[in-house]
Amino acid sequence: MGTPKNTPSTARAARIEELRRAEAARARRVRLLTVGAAVVVAAGLVAGGVALAHSGPDARSTASDTKDGAAAKNAAANSAGDSGHFTTGKDGVRVWSGTLSRNHVSTPVDYPMHPPVGGNHNPVWLDCNGDVYTAPVKDENAVHALEHGAVWVTYTGKAAKADVAALAAKVKRTPYTLMSPYADQAAPLMLTAWGHQLAVKSASDPAVDTFLATYVQGAQTPEPGASCTGGTMK
Looking at the Swiss-Prot or TrEMBL record, what is one Pfam family this protein matches (predicted)? Predict the structure, then answer.
């Protein structure tokens, strides 16, 4: 018998399985760390309350000033912090040429493109371990998922139901992907990674698999290996 050929499809399957195992291990570590952090935070709150009770007016005033400063910073951060423009390659992928900011903000962000391909975003990422959302999600959480190396599949009401179902099935078996409806986009079906975006004609378009193979945890990822679980699911 001959040695099995290492085809692109088998290599991709092996890579996906490796990502799935790594994500499962990471999720277990996150759960353990969360329990430990909760204990530390609880102890810190008790100690902080005692310290504040014994502090004078100056200390309380400083704390208030710090809080006000943080609020002002968040209020100014509703901008995506992005500058530049898209350039389109021969493969149809639009690449953002310019700056994509990566600050964590708690306010809504006004992105210059839809869906956004990067920019300031919420501190909590959207779960992207093959998650399929049937309702629109918040841009700010989805952008954080892109920062972790996820590919975001989006569709409008004009997309064929068969294409939506086929893409959903593909996403569910692919770690570091997510899918959701998105009304305000230029094409019925789109795939987005950090700094990259592609409109496809159908779920069977070969460009779908090429985009996933290239950009799921691809070279464009600002935070490769970061978790796609333990964030938010809405």
Answer: DUF3105
Q: What are the CA-CA distances from residue 130 to residues 33, 49, 185, 209 (Å)? A: 23, 42, 22, 15
CB-CB neighbours of 112 under 10 Å: 16
The β-bridge relationship of strands 129-132 and 151-155 is: unpaired
> How far is Cα of residue 74 from the mean position of the Cα atoms in its chain?
20
pLDDT band at 63, cuts 50/70/90? very low
Which residues, listed in sequence order, are joined to residue 99 by a DSSP beta bridge? 83
Give this prediction's pTM.
0.74
Is position 115 within any domain? Answer: yes
Residue 110 has pLDDT above 70, yes or no: yes
At 196-221, the pLDDT tens digits run 999 999 999 999 999 999 999 999 99
Count of structural domains, the chain = 1
Domain of 116 in residue numbering reads as 6-234
For residue 201, give the nearest of 227, 166, 230 by alpha carbon.
Answer: 166
| Domain assignment present for 1 | no
Preceding amide of 115 cis, omega within 30? yes
Q: How would residue 233 be classed by pLDDT, with cut points 50, 70 and 90?
A: confident
Residue 170 inside a domain? The answer is yes
